[in-house]
Amino acid sequence: MFSNKYIKIRDLSIFNYLFSLSFLYILPIILANRYYIDDMGRVLHGYTHWKRDGRPLADIVMQALNFGKPILDLSPIIQILSVFTLSVSLTLYAKRYFKNGSVFSISMGLFLFVGNPFFIQNLSFKYDSLTMSLSLCALIFCFSFDLLTLYTWFMVSFLIVVSLSLYQASIGLFFILSVIELIQKKINDREFNTVAFSCLFFRFVQFVTGYMFYYFVVLRSCNLSDYGGQHSQVIPFDRNGIHILIKNIESYFFVFKNSFIGFPTIFILFYAFVIFLFIVKYAKFENFYLSTCVVLSPLLCFLFSFIHLSILRDPIFLERVFLSFCGFMLFIYFCVYNLFKKYSAYILFPLVSFCFFLSYSYGNTSAAQNRIDTLIASSISYDQAHYNGTFKTLSIVGVMPQAKQRELIVERLPIMKGLVPIYINNSLYWGGELLNSFLVVGEPVNADQNDFDFMIKNKPFLSSRDYDLYANKDKMIINFKNKAPD
Q1: How many percent of the chain have pLDDT more than 70?
Q2: Distances in Å between the alpha carbon of 146 and those of 92, 142, 427, 464, 476?
Q3: Distance between CA atoms of residues 180 and 199, nearest Å
Q4: Cα–Cα distance measured from residue 356 to residue 43, given in angstroms and rounded to the nearest whole number
Q5: Would you say 384 and 301 are in contact if contact means Cβ atoms under 8 Å apart?
Q6: What totals of helices (H) and strands (E) does the chain contain, helices first?
Q7: Is the pLDDT of residue 36 over 70?
């Protein structure tokens, strides 16, 4: 089935190093112990609801791990399983694409896949991190098979369906790994033109087969929610569609630009130079197709990390949808590996170190913000419990205080603004769920004009340093002193 049938001691060593690095990487996330966005709804109500977003296998996986419904908080085992499964799949991938070099340098290179800065958000989910990771694993397994067999054709298409049914945003990884596969065949095979076109053809057909089955069978069997339906519509194939596509691409470029502010410029220039050296070495200009493929490979790998999101009418611009950027991180290692071989570890060490810097600074900031969440929610719960009245609904105006550590890290690394969210934030739904988890009574609803009018004409029943509480019949209005948007 796989290119090498037997697991060897070398493979086990690569896995052990890779899993150890990955576990150390997620350790601060585990220790922060903060329920992350959707986690708060699931820890309170035990629902799955991924099928309503076109992800039916995510429901099945989590229900199986929980021996039924409602699902419970199994952290940190879910996050540990996430990096465990990724370590297994990447080790099998290395058997085919990274056969030479030291065990530790290969492990460091493969770790860059997990060290994708955006992937920190995915790994922060106590409930959903495993299903997102398994979606990536399914795509990695697609490239562990020999290409030209009927069995492979079926299995790869099946794995694409599996990946999409777990988390659709990861599908860009398939195209990035296809680019890496193509360049690898160029390095190993002199008959590049024939091999390249056959490889591209088979990968394209496998993808189309899998995607069509997912779209016409799996997706249509899901009763999509308004959210799922809204974010799965593809742009129209007309002039307006082209305008939306260009606008989406510009928006994603803006996200990348803002996210990398604060990253050491010397790092970016150094690894860009490594990619340039890779192009110079392998772009043999006597062969047009060969040189074009190699020259465009960095750009293609980068574009495939988000271009599949750009064709959506209403895409999501949150960090968690950039799973496919894991493939670009792997491409960086692919360039380093083919240039430096046994010296790869020395070239990779600065980038791996920076990945750990991001993870540990993020984990400590998340823990600090979690303490502020607890302080504010506990205070509101106490104040409400001592009010002589009952509430059925609650609305939020303004933004809760943020930890001083968060202020500092966002100033230094703007990517952390999205990675460390402020939940109680202008009627953000998850803020209401956070308050409910601290026994604050009232269904969260959006603040409306009546709330603002009421606050102008009436006095709060409680006023504190951070917020005022108003009682408008059976509705509690939480008015934070901080009105600045997060």
Answers
A1: 93
A2: 13, 9, 52, 66, 62
A3: 11
A4: 29
A5: no
A6: 22, 5
A7: yes
The token pair at 33 is 């112990």
Give the residue among 402, 375, 404 at the shortest CA–CA distance from 485: 402
Roughly how many angstroms between the first and final C-alpha of the chain, as a whole number?
50
Strands (E), 288-364: none
**What is the Cβ-side half-sphere exposure of residue 103, based on CA atoms within 13 angstroms?**
13
Paired tokens of 162: 């599996």
Average pLDDT, the chain: 90
> For 476, phi and psi rounded to 5 degrees?
-100, 130
The predicted structure's pLDDT at residue 3:
43
Q: What is the average per-residue pLDDT within 404-416?
A: 95
DSSP state of 342: G
Alpha helices by DSSP H, 386-467: 404-412, 415-419, 429-437, 449-457
Using one digit for the tens of pLDDT, what is the confidence trace for 186-222? 777 655 566 667 778 888 899 999 999 999 999 988 8
H or E stretch including 420? Answer: none
What number is the average pLDDT over the span 156-161? 95
